[in-house]
Amino acid sequence: MPTITSSVIFAVYDYLFPPTEPGKQWRERASAEAALRTKAQQDAQTAWKNGQREASKKLNLEAKEHYREMEHYNSKAEQTIFAHYNNAANTAQLQQVDLHGLFVSEALVRARAHLEACRKARVSRTTFITGRGNRSIDGVAKIKAAVQDWLKEEQGVAVDESETEKNPGIVVAVIEVDSTPPEGDADAAWPWKAGETVAWAVMGTVKSLFALASTAAPQSAPLAIEPPKSTSTPNFSKEFEVPPSPAPPGAFNQKLPPVKAAANDDGDDDWEVVAAPVARQARPRPATKAPRAKTAVAK
After folding, report:
1. What number of other Cβ atoms are within 10 A of residue 140's Cβ?
2. What is the pTM of this model?
3. Beta-carbon contacts of residue 19 (< 8 Å; ≥ 6 apart)
4. Residues 17-54: pLDDT tens digits?
5. What is the dihedral of CA 88, 94, 98, 102, to 10 degrees?
């Protein structure tokens, strides 16, 4: 005989008694799983006290499975409720976000995501619809108080108290925005892109004008320092005399022959000094002394 699970029972119940509120069927299933989890935990503790270790471990695993099912049903309920109360047009324009029917933890997650989207799109004002707390057990608006406390801790965000006091079911937030272009939004970013394009075009035109002016201006030739040119050509064939060097004491003073500069015979243009041959003069020898005459010595 096939086993009838809780999912089948819930499906038949939803068919016979359709829910009147969005996400109500998922909340009921989550509540049922929470009750089963609590019962499994209590049974596990009782089995542990009685020494039934294996039974206690099995019941603990069963309790964890009920907890995962509870979280799954609550997630489906949160998605259904949020999609029901939030119009696609208002959500896209980021004018407001409706947090009706959500748990406090779920509402804060949605509020943080909405505020981050407003900052990226440079939206400076938005409204959080929290409700007046009519569906709460004690009639206190828990979501509104939680959203106000959270916004006070956020940097660059202020709560418009005047608008919030007029309607007890909303919280109006004023967001500080900067002038940088938004990310990922081509329609909102086109003014910044156009301004950037114009700036680059102007810079390119200025550079072109400077380059044209520098090429059209006459450039002065660099100054070259050249050695002075002599107008007269030296005459290397002219004879000249070399002045005599001072003679050492006791040397003979003699006149040197004239020296002539002439070209070589090897075919190049260099010059060499040619001196005329000089006849060597015999140096006079000093007079020799006459030999002394030997005198005979008488013996």
Report:
1. 10
2. 0.53
3. 25
4. 555 678 899 999 999 999 999 999 999 999 999 999 99
5. 90
